[in-house]
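Working notes for the structural subgroup meeting. M.R. asked for a predicted model of this chain before we commit to crystallization trials. I am recording the input and output together here so anyone reviewing the notebook later can reproduce the run.

Input as submitted:
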Amino acid sequence: MPASSNRAEMPQPESPAARGASPQLPLAPETTPTPTAASASVSPSVPPRPAVPGFMASGLGIALFSSAVFGLSGSFAKALLETGWTPGAAVTARLTGAAIILAIPAIPALQGRWHQLRDNWVTIVLFGLIGVAACQLFYFNAVARLSVGVALLLEYLAPVLIVLWMWAASRKRPRPLTIAGTLLSLGGLVLVLDLTGAVKIDVVGVLWGIAAAVCLAIYFFITAKENDSLPPIVLASGGLMVGAAVMWLSAATGLLPMAFSTADTKLGPWITPWWVSLAGLVVLATVLAYVSGIMAARALGSKVASFVSLTEVLFAVLWAWLLLGELPGAIQLLGGVLIVGGVVLVRLDELRGLDPRTGAGAPECAALRHANDVEPVP
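Returned structure, recorded in token form:
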């Protein structure tokens, strides 16, 4: 959720996102040395080899790395929650530590243009409130009651919620592919909840997961307006600072229960000090996840990066299995496949419906396109 896992995210909207879009960085032109007469006479029939970009240099490796570390957030958080930490305390510690670390590259990125913060304060505040604080708090509350994989799958229903809302608001029926994707995801939700299974799912946990999805959808609506005046790293750092301030204020006024613990945490076969899980949550699942996510969005473009980000669900389930011994049942795994497949169909229909001249698309998918290279992923 959405900083998603607060993530998510989740399928990323056009000119991303959790959530000012910056222009894609141009690749340096490849140059091939002009052969001299001497070299041509030695090997006249050997053509020059084209440079092949490496896996990481292509952006795909960076995108997969970002999904992998984002997927760790649920496992690290649950390890802390099981020792007595409250979800509010885990979110507050995560946001505070990450905000301080990301401020180091964010300040030089401004290059003295502090007016960018003033001009974009609404975007920063909304990102901090909804895309960071609320999205992650709700996701961690869901993780406290559900398995990590189920909680994240619930949050990934955000694009489906957007389609349903736009359908109801505009009263214009989406295209068949979008309808198919929506129905596929809703069918997957039924399987994920496994209502007829022997183990009854926690209703409160489900509501927390859906609340995280709602926050993600609201964030997409809010940031749908294009904005390229704010560096993504500044948006991420500023949003984390706002989110941390909100969490500390809520705790100080008694609105948010805050309990910490110094008991050892269990990660897979290892018993580790509490700060190991916290450091993993802050450094790996937040700082490195956001920075690599921004790099991937710029290298691949928002369309490809949004599809690669769907692998976060797979990584989250894998990490939860390795570190927590959690593995959803076969029915729930099938439901997860349907949810992700439905989201893919919605995204494909959105991209297919874009006008190549204007970049505009169908109204039911308009909220899926926003301009930030940062989204509220858990």
